[in-house]
Amino acid sequence: MKNRLTVVIVAYNSQNYLEECLDSLYGQTNVPHLKVVVVDNASADRSIFPVLQARFPDLSLLFNCENLGFAKACNQGINCFPASFYLLLNPDSVVLNDAVGKCLSYLESSSEVGIVGCRVENPDGSLQLACRRSIPRPSTAFYRLTGLGWLFPHSQRFGRYNYTCRDDRETHPVDAVSGSFLMFRSEVLDSIGLLDETFFLYGEDLDFCYRTMLAGWGIHYYSKAAVTHYKRRSSAQDPEASNFHFYNAMKIFYRKHFSASAGPFKNRAVYFGIDCLYRLALLRNRLLRKSNVGSEG
């Protein structure tokens, strides 16, 4: 029997918080014909998985011998457990008040919508801005990186990237939602295919949403459902590698969708800007690491 919903969780050294995620998912979700699969990308410690299998007998596990990246691991889960709907869920997330069931009902009742994302909150209840985004075209990226979006968050022009010009307590169309909670219907796969495995970490959610939008599907931010996301629990394990993949994803996305229509000068300027941001991020991390030496104890 085809699953109604397949939830794909990609784990990589996530043993400290994966059980809490699954506990909230099973405890806060009442969806018939639900399949949950954890795809482990060669975690160093896999001792938690027998415990999880005992606690959640319906849980399926896939183990990779190496870290294949987020997109490829998601595609494995999707291919192995076909469903009418799919949810990509980060392992450092906690599901609140039947968020999965609410989003599924919303998607089932909205035939023109291909992807829905919920309200993604920090542990203090504040909104994580990345849960509703515009496509980072050069203009919106410029407003964000120059701080204009921060200075004028309610401006229709400058506040568009993270939709700070829209009330986050209202459901509305967006260009993209966050891969920490990204639910979509199977017909989207028929239209655009799977996640692009060129993206190793970061950017694959943005690319998937953009291709979905180009195929004519709606993408909605659904404000009546929420999860808590302990952002960067995983990336904090290796911040330099995380920064590399983040800024490399920016290059891949731009090259794939915008470079062909831009002139060589504009392309060089964009790549130079991304490289500068990457170097600044590395410098910031190194300075923070030095400042933390000897700060404990």
Q: What's this, in brief?
A:
With 297 residues, this protein is of the alpha/beta class. It folds into two domains: 3-132 and 168-233, Alpha-Beta Complex (Spore Coat Polysaccharide Biosynthesis Protein SpsA, Chain A); 237-288. It is built from ten helices and nine strands.
Architecture blueprint of SSEs:
Blueprint: E1 3-11, H1 18-27, E2 34-40, H2 48-55, E3 60-63, H3 70-80, E4 83-89, E5 93-96, H4 99-108, E6 113-121, H5 138-145, H6 148-151, E7 172-173, E8 181-185, H7 186-192, H8 204-214, E9 218-229, H9 239-257, H10 264-292
Parallel strand pairs: 1-2, 1-4, 2-3, 6-9
Antiparallel strand pairs: 4-8, 5-9, 6-8, 7-9
Helix pairs in contact: 9-10
Description:
With 297 residues, the protein is of the alpha/beta class. It has two domains: 3-132 and 168-233, Alpha-Beta Complex (Spore Coat Polysaccharide Biosynthesis Protein SpsA, Chain A), CATH 3.90.550; 237-288. It is 39% helix and 20% strand. It is built from ten helices and nine strands. The protein has helices spanning 18-27, 48-55, 70-80, 99-108, 138-145, 148-151, 186-192, 204-214, 239-257, 264-292; strands at residues 3-11, 34-40, 60-63, 83-89, 93-96, 113-121, 172-173, 181-185, 218-229. Strands 1, 2, 3, 4, 5, 6, 7, 8 and 9 form a nine-stranded mixed β-sheet that branches. Helix 9 packs antiparallel against helix 10. It is globular.
